[in-house]
Amino acid sequence: MSKYVYKVEKKKNLRKIFRFSGLGLILVGFLFGLYSFYPIIAWQIFIKPAFANFASPVPQATILTKETIESLLTNSFNNGSWLPESRTHNSVDVSSYAISIEKLKIKNATVVTTDTDIGKHLVHFPGTSLPPFRGNAVIFGHSTLPQLFNPTDYKTIFARAHELKIGDKISVTIKDVNYTYKIFNITIVDADDLSYLAQPQDDSYLTIVTCTPPGTIWKRLIIKANVEKI
User: Fold this and answer.
1) Can you give the pTM of this predicted structure?
2) Which of 79, 104, 116, 122 is the most exposed place for a label (fewest CB within 10 A)?
């Protein structure tokens, strides 16, 4: 009789273990899904209402790729008016330079001026000014879900760019000379807004462009900085 009772209790304990294990796996799956889709959820709850008065819907089909940048290049040069030739130093004599952002643990990330493949490096938009000359150096880079951020992976390098604040510093190294840029403006624009390509001639500016909200391709995060005077 004692052996029979022992077997029944053992089976009950096993059933409890399997039951709680199943519930645990469901909970872990739910938390993982919530963690993965948090940027989109946060957009819907906190950010989207701020754009409720926009006449046009949020664009969802324009992704920041090599082809997109090439298209932007064509369209912007067809426009022509945004790039004054005087006092704007073109990037043809420098194939690459580097930027570092201490807050994001980005160290000497390569910015290339000779192609538009943002999967392999950051891209300096052709025709925009070169640091530290007057004008606006425009740099494109990828972003994704913040939890996938890797400061050495160019496919995730700006996944936490939304954490930057006004006053944060961006270091530029070009031809073995270092320059420090200080962020003064952070905005979000539509995917087809090219105003960030403008070339003001009163100072040396640097503009970082990436997709936002993190993990989506709906908008563009524009981070503007100007060179600190020595």
Assistant:
1) 0.69
2) 79
